[in-house]
Amino acid sequence: MVRSRMASMLSISVLLLLLLSWFTPISSHPLDPLTPAEIATVRRVILSSPIAVSSASFAFHYVGLDEPDKAQVLSWLHRRPPRRALVLARADSETHELVVDVGLAALISDRVHRGAGFPILTLEEQAAAVSLPLSYPPFVESVRRRGVALADVVCSTFTKGWFGEAGRARRRLVVACFVAGETVNLYVRPIEGVTVLVDLDEMRIVEYRDRVAPPVPKAEGTDYRASTKNLPWSKPGAVLQPAGKGFQVDGHFIRWSNWEFHLSYDARAGLIVSLASVHDAQKSTSRRVLYRGFVSELFVPYMDPVEEWYFRTFFDSGEYGFGLWASPLQPAADCPANAEYIDGYYAGQDGKPVKLPQVFCIFERNSGDVAWRHTEFGFPGQLIREVEPEVSLVVRMVAALGNYDYVTDWEFKASGSIKVVVSLTGILEVKGTNYTHADQIPAGLDPHGSLLAENTMAIYHDHFITYHLDLDIDGSNNTFVKSKLKPTRVTGGSVPRRSYWTVVREEAKTEADARVEMGSVPAELLVVNPNKKTKMGNAVGYRLISNSAPAASLLADDDYPETRAGYLKKQVWVTPYNKSEKWAAGLYVDNSRGDDTLEIWSQRTIENTDIVLWHTIGFHHIPYQEDFPVMPLLSGGFELRPSNFFESNPLMNSSATGQVYTTCTCIA
Ligand SMILES: *[C@@H]1O[C@H](CO)[C@@H](O)[C@H](O)[C@H]1NC(C)=O
Ligand SMILES: *[C@@H]1O[C@H](CO)[C@@H](O)[C@H](O)[C@H]1NC(C)=O
Ligand SMILES: *[C@@H]1O[C@H](CO)[C@@H](O)[C@H](O)[C@H]1NC(C)=O
Ligand SMILES: *[C@@H]1O[C@H](CO)[C@@H](O)[C@H](O)[C@H]1NC(C)=O
Ligand SMILES: [Cu+2]
């Protein structure tokens, strides 16, 4: 995606919390994110270590919790695991992987990463890179020649990807520029034809090219700010909870209805849901469902193979940080008036804690939908009607990765379901073109996009959002099951029916068995606990229901972006639990070469063991005119739904809605 968070915004959000942070309480759960005080300790330890002291340049690229192993987390009440931080840093053009014991304030390991790929880009280096062209004489001349005022030019960073280059890679980034001035919608006014390549370690322009280019699209009709228009807004609605909120926030734990879960923020993953358990009223016990769930990667490849566009294949999590670009939520707009907010903290390039205020919101949603109902007309002269309105709990984060905004929701339902939704909005990435009408595009010439306005081509692209879902259904050892629907012929001829379908259950024994291209065969996908049975003797489980049309990558197997994201050929993968396998496209994604991806992790056995489900929501995005100048929400998602997990419908015993509407017109 295109990025240009302004330097001034950066400095406003950079709050020095060092002093204040000493008064914040010590974090109390092993999965809690690092506190500002802990980030400050990590910084102090690292900056006083020989690596930082002896380096001419040192930058923090990622600081986050080095989570303890699952066994330690699950037994932490008996023995508290040490608090550790994982730091990815660059020192004199080398990538270091550092682990700090926060409690002991000690550096406990330092490993230089010699393989392919670089860590997440820092916000600060991107801010520095985008200012370079503005004082680069050839660029100033290119801008002048296009009749654009330099003061109106705003630039953004574009990762360069990897296209088969051999040998030692350099951290390089493309900077592309846009024209603001008459509009705030700078992304739709690109300066085409100019290629600026910046070396990030040297922080200078190393390549410059200006090709013959189409005009910069007009500003007219591009402003998306409703505040500038005098619209007859409809009357504002209200959310009333006269009896107060139905959920409690206890440290990082959220409790609502029959659910309890832990929430944490991470600069790379964004929102992480951990230790989600559902209370089973019939068994009077809390039962584990999801150990950890988060966005592992977000891949957005564009489909225009020209010089200025072919490399635009962005890994928004691994290259930019899905959490780092999270946007503070606007009360009563991003979330309803009854929401509560949670702040997040990341480390800046200098290692200092930076507050991301209101990064998550939590609210009860009274959707106006029905949770279940029944009307019984069957008894002559009687009517029985029972309706339970649906109320659920939603946790939300919005990542605003430059031009695109991603609204990510986790919705917990009293029925035991967890619904995950991701919605795309924001501004499309467009290319300047000579065309002002679709009829001008010669037949047989591939425009690589849709003409949305004069001189404005919105390029075809995909969005693939891959979730890491470490399900622990009623315990850690689980099995992945495909319940395939098999069309079958009726034999014997004793009835006139000729066919039906039945279910063939296949347990996945290896990782290879568990790769699924959704929609290729009708099948239900379940994670079951073969060691736990219901009273009826069924293995307890949850199933994955996709709420999106399956979209797999359409790139050729030998295309470089495909090598880096080969896991996108399937929507579902299952791997054995491994604390270090968190990132579908690898730990070091900037300039990665595809040697540390979900696809290449080995062939292992996954039957009745601790497994992790990976699921990708994909969108092939052909732009339409309604996506301009700003795109209305386009959503996809999935549901994790209990399937023989409870003995019967858990809503019969839930108090989420507080009310079931009963009508009975019974005979006296
Ligand atoms: C657009 O028009 C200009 C001026 O006529 C021309 O020089 C240029 O080659 C055209 N570009 C494309 C991509 O057709
Ligand atoms: C509701 O819970 C009670 C125990 O609290 C149990 O006896 C009953 O079977 C439950 N009913 C359903 C339908 O789950
Ligand atoms: C855990 O994952 C890492 C990274 O893929 C791998 O190197 C390591 O061998 C794995 N450990 C086990 C026990 O499979
Ligand atoms: C869970 O799986 C692991 C690895 O397959 C095995 O060693 C362990 O005994 C299993 N535990 C249970 C409770 O089945
Ligand atoms: Cu899109």
Can you offer a commentary on this structure?
The protein folds into three domains: 28-113, Nuclear Transport Factor 2, Chain: A; 123-228, Nuclear Transport Factor 2, Chain: A, CATH 3.10.450; 238-664, Beta-galactosidase, Chain A, domain 5 (Distorted Sandwich). The longest helix is centred in the first third of the chain and has 12 residues, at 36-47. It is mostly beta strands and 668 residues long. The protein has a 20-stranded antiparallel sheet that branches. It has a four-stranded antiparallel sheet with strand order 1-2-3-4, with helices on one face. The chain has a four-stranded antiparallel sheet with strand order 5-6-7-8, with helices on one face. The protein is globular. The model is unreliable at 6-26 (pLDDT under 50). The protein has helices at residues 7-13, 18-21, 36-47, 50-53, 70-74, 123-131, 137-145, 316-320, 560-564, and strands spanning 58-65, 84-91, 94-101, 106-113, 153-159, 172-179, 194-199, 204-210, 247-250, 253-256, 259-266, 270-280, 285-301, 313-315, 340-347, 353-376, 383-401, 404-413, 418-426, 430-432, 449-453, 456-459, 461-471, 477-489, 499-507, 523-533, 539-546, 572-576, 609-621, 631-642, 661-665. Its EC number is 1.4.3.-. Pfam families: Cu_amine_oxid, Cu_amine_oxidN2, Cu_amine_oxidN3.
